[in-house]
Amino acid sequence: MKKITIVGITGYSGLELFRLLSFHAEAEVVAVCATSHIGEKLADAVPQFEGLTELVISEFDVDLAMKNSDVVFFATSSGVSLKLALPLIEAGFPVIDLSGDFRLKNPDDYEKWYKNTAAENVYLSKAKYNLADLTTATATYIANPGCYATATLLALAPLVQENLIDLTSIIVDAKSGLSGAGKKLTESSHFVDVSDNMSMYKVNQHQHIPEIAQQLHDWNEDFEALQFTTSLIPVTRGIFASSYVKLADSVTFDTVKNAYQKCYENKNFVRIRRQLPQIKDVVGTNFCDIGLVYNEKTNILTIVSVIDNLMKGAAGQAVQNFNQLFGFAETTGLQFMPMI
Ligand SMILES: NC(=O)C1=CN([C@@H]2O[C@H](COP(=O)(O)OP(=O)(O)OC[C@H]3O[C@@H](n4cnc5c(N)ncnc54)[C@H](OP(=O)(O)O)[C@@H]3O)[C@@H](O)[C@H]2O)C=CC1
Ligand SMILES: CC(=O)N[C@@H](CCC(=O)OP(=O)(O)O)C(=O)O
């Protein structure tokens, strides 16, 4: 049984982490932290938790966290863990960080894309970016992948790893539900702007572009760049990523299908679907569902990947990384059917 501190409990990913970890057979949440609602019972701040917890929201105290828990989860806005987590890194204390602060190896990339000063290299180098379906968490500081990056990388992994496509041809058009934007209300997140609507945002400027590129380049050093766009759609949860690539010379659709089967055959949370997947197929689950269609006339392969941004895109994958880190069965606390 591992004792857990969650920082960022009042946010959407923090609440989702609490939902998962409260009924996890190997976890006990011992502290929940934020900067608002300090001293208030969690069940008062979040009334839907009434009768489910006696925990009180506190300010994050790094010494107390290390004394009373075995691992800290940061579900905080970007720019927070890069300050608060430094003593944990120095102590080699286990951390799972859902934010983007430790995902990029090059601090210049973080400064460019997140428009903030990066953590120093000495700290960044201790973090391991772990896409939990493809590698196993081992380092004590786990940088949990971003939501769009997860859907995109799982869609492209077999193609890029096995060199099956023209690496200059990758176009990804990804769409997210509103919970991906976090709880802070902005002009663009009003019901009136989001419902019955769809809008593209951060075109060529999305902070997941360098994260995706970093991982694709690690898999295949010939990869240089991709076209990546993000849109907001009127659903609460879910990412729908459509990726388009040209197959390399003499690569057939059968070869491609075999590569996906091989890559994901023993994976608990990636399903290669016979029909094209929809967002509702994965809402409430930790699955990434993938569907493939090939057009012989254009030589273009369409890959559809869907995830629940709060599950596989955030808290679900974080729990998967937690399970791996501590040697629990990977599916512990994560076995859910999709919600209708
Ligand atoms: N939402 C999603 O689908 C995904 C989110 N992420 C990433 O996960 C992180 C959390 O996202 P999300 O839940 O959407 O964000 P929210 O904006 O909903 O929540 C942010 C949380 O961080 C807390 N917080 C902010 N500053 C501090 C601080 N200094 N000390 C302690 N707590 C603090 C806030 O609490 P308070 O208001 O009380 O200060 C709040 O609980 C972000 O980095 C996000 O980019 C990653 C993948 C998907
Ligand atoms: C719908 C929506 O606004 N989504 C957010 C996802 C934010 C996120 O997850 O940010 P990091 O992974 O970089 O921490 C966005 O596109 O910026």
TrEMBL record:
Pathway per the UniProt entry: Amino-acid biosynthesis; L-arginine biosynthesis; N(2)-acetyl-L-ornithine from L-glutamate: step 3/4
Major place of residence: cytoplasm
Gene3D superfamilies: Dihydrodipicolinate Reductase, domain 2, NAD(P)-binding Rossmann-like Domain
Residues annotated as domain Semialdehyde dehydrogenase NAD-binding: 3-137
Molecular-function annotations in GO: N-acetyl-gamma-glutamyl-phosphate reductase activity
Active site: 147
Key words, A-Z: Amino-acid biosynthesis, Arginine biosynthesis, Cytoplasm, NADP, Oxidoreductase
Function noted in UniProt: Catalyzes the NADPH-dependent reduction of N-acetyl-5-glutamyl phosphate to yield N-acetyl-L-glutamate 5-semialdehyde.
Family, as annotated: Belongs to the NAGSA dehydrogenase family. Type 1 subfamily.
Protein name stated in the entry: N-acetyl-gamma-glutamyl-phosphate reductase
Species for this entry: Lactococcus nasutitermitis
GN (gene name): argC
